[in-house]
Amino acid sequence: MPLPRVALFARFPEPGRAKTRLIPALGPDGAALLHRRLTERTLAVLRSSGLPFELRHTGAPAAEFCLWLGAAVPLAEQGDGDLGARMARATADAPAILVGADLPDLAPRHLEQARTALQSHPAVIGPAEDGGYWLIGLREPMPFLFEPMAWGTEVVFAETMARFAARGIVPAVLERLPDLDRPEDLGRWPELAGR
């Protein structure tokens, strides 16, 4: 199997449009700054992993991302549709591993674990503490995983596992990690929130 490509999903850090659930705690500028820090931190992890990667961007033209992150970061547009449609597009040329930018505890070892798991399993998933997942990796495209569901809610991991089970697919399951999405999450990583 070729090395999986890691796709990082990230929005441009525009105040008022980035990390909107954190605006009540940080204000529009603070939430955007936090998203900027998280994205840069996650890119550093991807570089350290040694795996090929790309940033799947939305919220601004590619040129704006190049000005922010440099021309050496491979870019691809997320495209239209809901999160599921955009994730399906990113896994159409699997093997692929998808992650978001809201994982302060993500380390290169997590990506290595996912890569290793794909050698013996058709898929790998990392459950998040909030009921979603922080990583999904596929050896081949599985568009059924990304058909409409209540994205961003506590049912996403369970529903995804049910979709695997309905097709007799047993994914490797990584450790549970927290993500940084809501004001109550900020206390875990005060250094990122600038507190």
TrEMBL record:
It holds the Pfam family DUF2064. SUPFAM superfamilies: Nucleotide-diphospho-sugar transferases (SSF53448). Signal peptide: none annotated. It comes from the Bacteria. InterPro entries: Nucleotide-diphossugar_trans, Trfase_1_rSAM/seldom-assoc. This is TIGR04282 family arsenosugar biosynthesis glycosyltransferase. It comes from Roseomonas haemaphysalidis. The lineage of its organism: Bacteria, Pseudomonadati, Pseudomonadota, Alphaproteobacteria, Acetobacterales.
